[in-house]
Structure formats: C-alpha cells, structure tokens
Amino acid sequence: MSKFCGLILLATLPLSVFLSTQAQVAQVADQPVYETRARHAPDGIGKFYLGREIARVMGHEGAAWLERQERVATELPEQVVRNLRLRPTDAVADVGAGTGYFTFRLSPVVPQGQVYAVDIQPEMLALVEQRKRERKADNVTTVLGTETDTKLPAESVDVALLVDAYHEFSYPREMMLSIVKSLKPGGRVVLIEYRGEDPTVPIKQLHKMTVAQARKEMDAAGLMWKELKDFLPMQHFMVFARPARP
Predict the structure, then answer these.
(1) Rounded to two decimals, what is the model's pTM?
(2) What 3-state DSSP class applies to 144?
(3) Where exactly are the structural domains of the chain?
(4) Are 193 and 166 in contact (CB under 8 A)?
(5) 41: pLDDT confidence band, cut at 50, 70 and 90?
(6) How far apart are CA 179 and CA 106, in angstroms?
(7) Apex CA 171: angle with CA 195 and CA 215, to 5°?
(8) How, if at all, do strands 235-241 and 183-195 pair?
C-alpha cells in the first residue's frame, strides 16, 4: 500500500490520533515496514513486523481443524460471544472467519444487526455461504478480502473480532488500517490469540502472541488499549478501540 493511501486511511481518525499516528509514520518513513530474514521457524514466512515473525497461513484444507469438538472446552466460544457485549443492532466483522465457527454464534445475538464474515479464501467463504443457507442466517454477509484489505464498508462496524487469525496476516499493518477504517468512531477490535508468554500453552510459538506485542502492533494502527479479559484457559481476550470523535 502506498504512503498516500495509508494517509487516506488515517484521515478517518480524530485529529489528535491522526497526528500521533502520522508522526509514527514519518518517523519510520525511510525504513521498510517489514523485514525479511532467513526463516527461523518452519511455520513462519521469514517476514517480520515490529520484531515478530509472521506465521504461515492455514489453508482451507485445514477447515476440519477449525471445527474440532475440543474448541468448545478449550476456547469457550459461548463465553467469548457473551463477553463481546453486543447489542441486537450491532454490526460485527468476523475477520478471518474461516468456516464460520464464530460467525454463526454471532448471528443470533445481533438479530437486527449484521455479521460480516471476512476471509481471503473463497473456499472458506463457500462453506460459510452453505451454512448460511442451511441456517437461514439472513443477517450474515460474506466478504472476500485481500491480504491488505478487508473490503469492509467504511465506518460500518461496531466490533471487529479476530480469533487466532491476526498472527497469520501477511500484511498486518495494512490489514489493521483497513479494519480501523471500517470501524465506527468508538468501535472495538477484540483480538484473541494464544498466550505467547506461557510456554505451557501447546501451540507453536509463531501462532501465539504476547500482550506487549499485540499492544505495540495495535498502537501502530492508531487503536487505543481498553482491557484484557482473563477468562480463557489458553488465550488472551484483548480489547482495543478506535477513538471516538471529540
């Protein structure tokens, strides 16, 4: 994404946040956003963002993994949805929706609202469309994004939910700027990732994130830290927000 396009995205933020983020952009203007190094992990792509190696994307061939029965016990999806504190009229983006594991848990909670199921793999969205028809979930809309753009409408989303997906974004900076653009002023990003600080969590290191790293990367997109909810057995439930207009 060009610097010009990046500034267009940032211009949707309040002036104080825009100036702060613009200063960060200027500070690194002469430096590449990403680094490329020899891969140090077989599940990484050798590309680094703010010191973190980006994990390899799980393809649609792994769809069954997303629907594994043990997720109910280990990831507590019903509690996740409750803790989003959604209103019936909210618009929610399930970014990295995959098979729609969370999409169809969100849909009945916002009966007068909208759920955007966003993914970059058409095969995943085909599965979501099939389930949408079976469940008659008319408030679900599938959105085929790209590696750099969610393709969500500007200022249309109350809450963006990213479950075990962000660490695989090939272009995390561009994607988060796209998500920020899609949020209504005061809208929230809920980032759920396996705890990178905990070596006992049985997930490969590149598929985990620390709170400190997540805060650094969300701050770079102009998002404000709100809270950390500590109810998941192995994951962080981190909440960020786009600043409201003065």
Answers:
(1) 0.85
(2) strand
(3) 57-241
(4) yes
(5) confident
(6) 18
(7) 40
(8) antiparallel
